[in-house]
Design a protein that fits this description.
This protein has 3 helices and 7 strands. It has 144 residues and is α/β, with parallel strands linked by helices. Strand 6 and strand 7 form a beta hairpin. The protein is elongated.
Length: 144
């Protein structure tokens, strides 16, 4: 069996483009170019049957290192805690008050984008501090 070379992370959501653009801002990702033959994603979207319009949107790491994120529209809303979540690594190598300050600064930036602060989990001797947040549709993620 060939080794896996790429991973895509897929999010279920109500408004794919809105959530994708939030994550572009969080991670410094970009929206990829539209398919060949289309000047914009809006042009591409208008070419689809009505039931397929606004059904998906993606963002990519401009350096090509991080995974592609794909956001797909689903009819049901979020009901329970995510079983998988992203850790946004903003405090790597930092400890104590310096780490918490970095987490808080990033939290403030993301709240301005529509993110929601859930709770700060302070270091406990085993794990370093992290800050739990939600994106604009309530999906949990951590500032780590």
């Amino acid at each position: 069996m060939a080794p896996i070379k790429q991973v895509q992370v897929t999010f279920d959501c109500a408004r794919p483009e809105r959530v994708a653009r939030f994550w572009c801002e969080v991670l410094g990702y970009v929206v990829p170019a539209p398919p060949e033959g289309f000047a914009t994603w809006d042009d591409f979207d208008r070419s689809l049957p009505p039931e397929r319009r606004d059904s998906g949107f993606a963002c990519v790491d401009p350096s090509g290192v991080g995974p592609r994120l794909y956001f797909q529209r689903v009819p049901e809303g979020k009901v329970v805690k995510n079983r998988v979540h992203l850790d946004v690594r903003v405090g790597t190598g930092l400890v104590g008050e310096e780490r918490v300050a970095a987490l808080e600064a990033e939290c403030a930036r993301l709240i301005a984008l529509g993110g929601v602060r859930v709770r700060l989990l302070l270091a406990d001797g085993f794990d370093e501090s992290c800050l739990v947040m939600q994106d604009i549709e309530g999906n949990e993620f951590c500032l780590d």
